[in-house]
Specification:
Number of strands: 3
CATH architecture: Alpha-Beta Barrel
Strand content: 5-15%
Largest sheet: 3 strands, parallel
Number of helices: 9
Oligomer: single chain
Distance between the termini: 22 Å
CATH class: Alpha Beta
Shape: globular
Radius of gyration: 16 Å
Helix content: 40-55%
Number of domains: 1
């Protein structure tokens, strides 16, 4: 997408993409796209820090771990859904308690999630049409 845009002299101001502790292990936006955005000075909108909330189903990390990992990446903002007051409070608590993670802390989080992340099963947006509105509504494409 970025190469096609560049070939047509189009520049993005921002790009929104999933960035989370499991993404680092499987078909990774963090590894493949994030460095390009940073090099091109494009704003990074990180989303799905908990995989909507499938990463939590893996029982390898907590919600706060997920939020802190994503907040530790070089993003302009981390977007997390807040569908209830307790979830909003969780996001506020994560923001208030956030401190940059050491390389060791990042390594430990990645080690805890490595095996669960190998197949992408906790990142359904990568392996299924679960979140694909155009697949579910092909009439939108004409």
């Amino acid at each position: 997408m970025l190469n096609t845009a560049s070939a047509h002299q189009f520049a993005f101001d921002t790009v929104q993409m999933p960035l989370n502790v499991m993404d680092a292990h499987f078909n990774s936006f963090e590894a493949k796209v994030l460095p390009v955005l940073l090099k091109q000075n494009i704003g990074v909108l990180g989303m799905k820090p908990m995989g909507d909330p499938f990463i939590l189903h893996s029982k390898t990390v907590t919600a706060i771990d997920c939020l802190h990992y994503s907040m530790n990446l070089p993003t302009s903002v981390v977007i997390t859904g807040c569908d209830s007051l307790p979830i909003l409070q969780q996001a506020i608590d994560a923001a208030r308690s956030f401190q940059p993670l050491s390389a060791g802390a990042v390594s430990r989080l990645l080690a805890r999630t490595a095996q669960a992340a190998q197949s992408g099963e906790y990142e359904l947006y990568k392996i299924s049409h679960h979140f694909d509105g155009t697949h579910q509504n092909p009439q939108w494409l004409g």
